[in-house]
Design goal:
heterotrimer, A alpha/beta (525), B alpha/beta (263), C alpha/beta (189), B: Rossmann fold, four-stranded parallel beta sheet, C: 189 residues, four-stranded mixed beta sheet
């Protein structure tokens, strides 16, 4: 899923972050994110009752995901939809490419979709000689620049208008003005040529209703409408967790998604596709294919990571994340960025990618607070840090999962209803009563220097005498290596701190020494 | 923002209360003055303060580094040290949040019940003074002092702390000037501060810039580690207001700088 | 919170206007028809055609097709073998909606026989006739209402206003792929 062949500015998140923080153009572009900072609270403010309902619907779905998928599949089949279940991105790509080749498809038009990013479908189609055109304006810009989208809602957020004009001018073969309207008008005309005569439209799905078989695609520009209306074949790539039990659930899910994504009350277009074109209709796809993508998702069911499958891809956690806002999406080098990407990437890649991502977080919890699906993102990041000590996939298929905690009422996610984030944040509940054993690693971690170091430290600090001794050693070390107390610019062995900040070298007594002195009457406070 | 929390079941009591101070390892080792300030504020509120000398660290560095076993060991130690007391008060929202949010997740069975009981009587300093004791007026006078308040993340999001430090400062007569995005992380994040030092410094600069834009004399907060990070950055770049724990600000403004030994 | 039918209607017009639509009405059938003809004429002043579905009950009841012809406008209908190439160069598509929402400001169009999806997509302007009786107060109400009104159409398209994007430095820019102009004509029924 790493968009093979893409140039990334470093092998680790740390290296890429360093580049990103020092890139003035990127920083200027990212400052536009301030406009979306408020979106996370909009749903809560306008429809406080919806947030719990959204989480409820998502949990109901995940509690019997396979059952809902079966129900969806039979409904789709009854509508004349071809359903293909793909366990891996490879399988999904093979199916779609095979279909395109069989049908003699020369050009594919794509609507913005995280799932097709995840399986790197556009490049796979191009590799076999099928033209694949991204039709969302932001995605189109990113495609022309041979980059990866850096934000799931606003793919070209990392580019300034000047950079966008450069990209489009290069494709136009003439200098386009650095003004939004003419740039948009040029892209409209250019992409119209692509829409007409495309044989296949490929979309993701924001939701798919199991009871009606309705595929929902949310857009603002109208490209989703083109992709689902004009080509004779429509393929929807649907990660399994996109299923929802009922069409009726869309009433709450869609406005919540849109408000959390952009702050708007509703997106400009919603395409709700229920089966292919019907008899007598003169447009709409003759063939509709739904590719249900698992890619290490179902294995998460029943584990503490199940909650992650409740994600509705609104991007609210990206918008409020201090790290995302500092470095943008490319620093993550993954289809999914921001807090949800740090969790989802190592999970769905079976631990093959993004193992350093969960550590790139201050654990400030702004993501958890913003999430309309009540996913405890910060807690999952902490848990992942522990689980990633063991090489290989985070969750192994067939392995025993930790039992839910005993003697306390739990919901299916191993969590007491009272411990749901929304419940935790209710006024009057400043002090939470959490019960989930969320951090306990699934498997025993192998030896590592970090682990040994922390265990030795914890042993030492479990006894007052050795704790006291270690403070004394620290003081002595500070005195020997750096006799001057107070704020200093450099201190031995602390360069990772002092490269960017002064450090406070403590002077005199520790607090406990001063307390003892006061008890003796030697000191008055 | 008004504090909408319901009053706690245990009503404020006028009689002296026995309070265990959890100084936190940062205060113990690096900023002992903040510990002294905490004791003075609690005593000004009429508390009898004890300092259980067996205390060490809440274990947060371990859990945040993905080492829950080590964190569990320190969680058990904390519970053993502090469970005899009526109330446990820490001058850190983050350390108090560790006890509240993580101990019950780390421990099982009987230990979990003990963790739950300890968490219920563990408080961050401003929360304890304002909400639990109902004593926002400690006699500190800060008229003419302008401050801006950074809402440190764990206190804010795990404990729901928003207004209590502001109430203490305002009651003392300080003028609070709110900065832009007071709830945005300062970039400390424990080991993140050294692991992702560039992002960390970038976020500190944003915070200091926002704080500086208010024209306030001090940027204050309830977490010593965030403040060490911010003040260290301020001293390096020369931008932003002086970063001080609210306990230090308030204790320095108490009427009698020296009090008789408590007992 | 909107409650009475009149309040819902007014809220709907307000929301559509906020979404950068031109709004007309509420009016009786005559006024509605006059508004449709006037808007169609305005959008085809350069001699382009008006794309009009076949068998749309609302448009048929109003007599839109004869009125447009009487006004001297060129019609493009789905039974025309040159429908699709004609649509690419048509000046406006006229449709009705099967539901609308006051709170969010959007209208729902159903595809069907004689009711192609592209009527409201390809031309640069879209005129949409909305019956006041089909305006729901909230989006969840409309979703439930549509579900219980009968089988869902193969394509149910919700439209808020002119095509727009936030992809250029997050500032809203209009007229990306879909119509650049959307006129809402509200029929008091």
């Amino acid at each position: 899923m790493s968009g093979k062949g893409l140039v990334t500015p470093g092998p680790t998140m740390k290296a890429r972050s360093k580049v990103a923080v020092g890139d003035p153009q990127l920083q200027a572009a990212l400052s536009n994110l301030d406009l979306r900072l408020f979106t996370a609270g909009v749903v809560q403010a306008e429809h406080p009752e919806w947030k719990d309902r959204v989480a409820e619907i998502r949990r109901e779905t995940l509690a019997d995901l396979d059952g809902w998928i079966d129900k969806l599949e039979s409904k789709l089949l009854s509508l004349g939809v071809v359903v293909h279940r793909a366990a891996t991105p490879e399988e999904a790509r093979r199916y779609i490419i095979g279909l395109a080749q069989r049908e003699g498809v020369a050009r594919v038009i794509k609507s913005k979709s995280m799932a097709t990013e995840e399986i790197d479908l556009g490049r796979a189609l191009e590799a076999v000689g099928i033209e694949s055109v991204e039709t969302d304006l932001g995605e189109y810009i990113v495609q022309l620049a041979d980059e990866r989208p850096s934000h799931m809602i606003t793919p070209a957020i990392h580019k300034t208008l000047g950079q966008i004009a450069d990209v489009l001018s290069k494709e136009a073969g003439t200098d386009l003005p650095v003004v939004r309207e003419p740039l948009t008008a040029w892209a409209r005309d250019k992409l119209r040529e692509k829409f007409v005569g495309a044989d296949m439209g490929i979309t993701g799905a924001n939701f798919v209703a199991a009871d009606t078989g309705t595929i929902v695609v949310v857009t603002n520009e109208g490209n989703g409408r083109f992709c689902t209306s004009l080509p004779r074949i429509h393929v929807a790539v649907v990660p399994v967790e996109k299923v929802i039990p009922r069409f009726d659930d869309l009433g709450v899910l869609l406005p919540t998604l849109v408000m959390s994504a952009t702050g708007a009350k509703m997106s400009n277009y919603l395409s709700m596709v229920t089966g292919p074109r019907r008899e007598g209709e003169i447009d709409g796809p003759e063939q509709l294919h739904v590719v249900l993508l698992d890619h290490n998702r179902r294995v998460l069911l029943g584990t503490p990571y199940e909650d992650m499958l409740g994600c509705i891809r609104c991007g609210a956690c990206l918008n409020v994340c201090p790290v995302y806002r500092s470095v943008g999406g490319h620093a993550y080098d993954s289809s999914y960025s921001g807090p949800m990407g740090k969790i989802l990437t190592p999970l769905v890649t079976g631990g093959e990618e993004g193992r350093d991502l969960p550590f790139a977080s201050t654990l400030c919890g702004a993501c958890t607070e913003a999430c309309p699906a009540e996913i405890p993102l910060a807690d999952l990041l902490v848990r992942l840090r522990a689980d990633l000590r063991t090489p290989g996939p985070v969750v192994v298929a067939g392995a025993d999962q930790p039992a839910p905690p005993p003697a306390l009422p739990v919901d299916h996610a191993g969590r007491s209803p009272a411990a749901h984030p929304a419940a935790r944040r209710k006024p009057g509940e400043g002090y939470a009563t959490p019960v989930t054993r969320i951090h306990v690693p699934t498997r025993r971690a192998p030896w590592s220097r970090r682990r040994a170091g922390f265990e030795a430290w914890a042993r030492l600090w479990s006894y007052p005498s050795t704790y006291r001794a270690s403070l004394a050693v620290g003081r002595l070390g500070a005195k020997v290596l750096r006799p001057k107390a107070g704020w200093v610019r450099r201190a031995p062995m602390l360069h990772a701190w002092t490269d960017s900040r002064d450090v406070l070298v403590p002077a005199g007594a520790t607090f406990r020494e001063r307390w003892a002195a006061r008890e003796r009457g030697d000191e008055r406070w | 923002m008004p504090d909408e929390r319901e009053p706690r079941a245990s009503a404020p009591r006028a009689a002296a209360r026995r309070v265990a101070l959890f100084a936190t390892c940062v205060v113990d080792a690096v900023t002992p003055d903040t510990g002294v300030a905490t004791v003075r504020l609690l005593e000004a509120a009429g508390c009898v303060v004890e300092f259980p000398v067996a205390q060490t660290c809440c274990g947060q560095p371990a859990i945040n580094s993905g080492e829950p076993e080590a964190a569990t060991r320190l969680a058990r130690h904390f519970i053993e040290v502090f469970e005899p007391f009526d109330a446990i008060v820490a001058p850190s929202g983050s350390c108090a949040a560790m006890v509240h949010h993580w101990y019950t997740r780390l421990l099982d069975g009987g230990w979990r019940q003990r963790a739950q009981a300890v968490a219920e009587k563990t408080f961050e300093l401003s929360d304890y003074l304002v909400e639990e004791l109902g004593r926002p007026d400690l006699g500190a006078r800060l008229e003419g002092t302008t401050v801006t308040v950074h809402d440190a993340c764990h206190g804010l999001r795990n404990l729901g702390l928003k207004s209590s430090a502001r109430t203490l400062l305002e009651t003392a007569g300080a003028t609070i000037v709110e900065m832009a995005e007071p709830e945005m992380c300062c970039g400390f994040g424990g080991t993140f501060a050294v692991k992702y030092e560039e992002i960390s410094a970038h976020l500190a600069d944003d915070k200091l810039e926002h704080g500086g834009a208010t024209g306030a004399r001090y940027l204050t907060s309830g977490d010593g580690a965030c403040l060490m990070h911010l003040e260290g950055r301020r001293r390096r770049t020369g931008t932003g207001p002086e970063c001080v724990h609210f306990a230090d600000l308030l204790a320095d403004a108490l009427p009698a700088p020296t009090r008789p030994v408590a007992r | 919170m909107v409650t009475t039918a009149d309040e819902v209607t007014q809220a709907f017009l307000f929301s559509m206007a906020a979404n950068q639509c031109a709004t007309f009405g509420p009016g009786d059938p005559d006024a509605t028809l006059a508004a449709i003809v006037e808007r169609a004429r305005a959008h085809t002043a350069d001699g382009t055609a008006v794309a009009l579905p076949i068998g749309d009950p609302t448009l048929d009841d109003l007599g839109v097709a004869p009125a447009l012809l009487a006004a001297g406008l060129t019609l493009l209908r789905p039974d025309d073998p040159e429908w699709f190439p004609g649509l690419v160069v048509a000046g406006v598509g006229v449709t009705s909606s099967i539901a609308a929402v006051a709170a969010t400001g959007n209208v729902a169009l159903g595809a069907g026989v004689g009711l192609p999806r592209a009527t409201s997509l390809l031309p640069p302007a879209h005129v949409c006739v909305v019956r006041a009786s089909q305006v729901y107060a909230t989006f969840p109400d409309a979703i439930s209402g549509l579900l219980h009104a009968g089988p869902l159409p193969s394509a149910l398209t919700w439209i808020g206003g002119p095509s727009r994007t936030g992809d250029l430095e997050m500032r809203t820019t209009f007229g990306v792929h879909g119509p650049k102009v959307v006129d809402i004509v509200l029929l008091q029924d």
